[in-house]
Model the fold of this input.
Amino acid sequence: MTKRALITGGAAALLTGGVRAAAARRERLAETTFPPQGELLDVGGVPVHVVVRGTGPDLVMIHGASGNLREFTFDLIPRLSERYRCIAFDRPGLGYTGRTDPAYASAWTSRAESPAEQAALLARAYRQVGEGAPLILGHSFGGTVALAWALDHPARALVLLAAPAMEWKGGLGPVYAVTASAPGGAMAVPLLTAAVPDTRLSDITRVIFAPDPVPPGYEAHIGGLLTLRRASLRANARQVNGLKPHVVAMQKRYHTLDLPIEWVHGDRDTIVPPQVHGHPFKARMPRTNLTMLPGIGHMPHHADPGAVVAAIDRAAAHG
Done:
């Protein structure tokens, strides 16, 4: 080996070590700043983070991509807890919930939990804190998991907020393609964890909320740094990048759903466009009550919480 090769290899090793150390420091900061808000259940050896607040009918709440259950403890649960027993879960690989299969946690894989696998784990977790068929609310990717729950497990009614439920054209862009891949997960993700600035997290949050404003205090509450952890970045990228084939398979079973479905969608949602998901789902499932919110984007539970609470109340009344 030449002297130049030795120097280059040594520099690469130092850089890799530096990136890993910086990523680890940021992960410790995230977990210190945003610790679990609830209880960690042991579900067949998998930790599942759950928050249970309030009294009344059980309402399971499932968050979307790049998120955690703090999505609901920020504002929606306080609005509901006097009339519902709110049960919010972290989805597998996000927040403080583990993976359904240890193989999914490998840096060198592109595999991740299907919506059905996620629903199965959360349904088992629910049986530790509730009983019977709960109301189920899901936002965005969490809405897909809520649909998977209703397809395979007892559910009283569904409340879907901007849920990806129908096949769409094209892919999800180069960032997901890279970070969801085995090489990208192993090599690019640690760099993102170490180097993405907080200002970039704020920019991403504004894009997710657009055209609606980010509520004051939301960023300080939600814990975006938790999703920047290497394991969570990999889980999120692989789950999202691999979602479409699962949705295509689920579509074939929607006709078996025999329960009230409330769907709330902003007409300016560009992340999960209603013309691709909400309206075609309603056409396929005419009993669905689709509420379109004029001028609202991808976060209806923050932009118009009253409309979401009313949808929950309708689901509870008819379920």
User: Anything to note?
Assistant: DSSP finds 15 helices and eight strands in the chain.
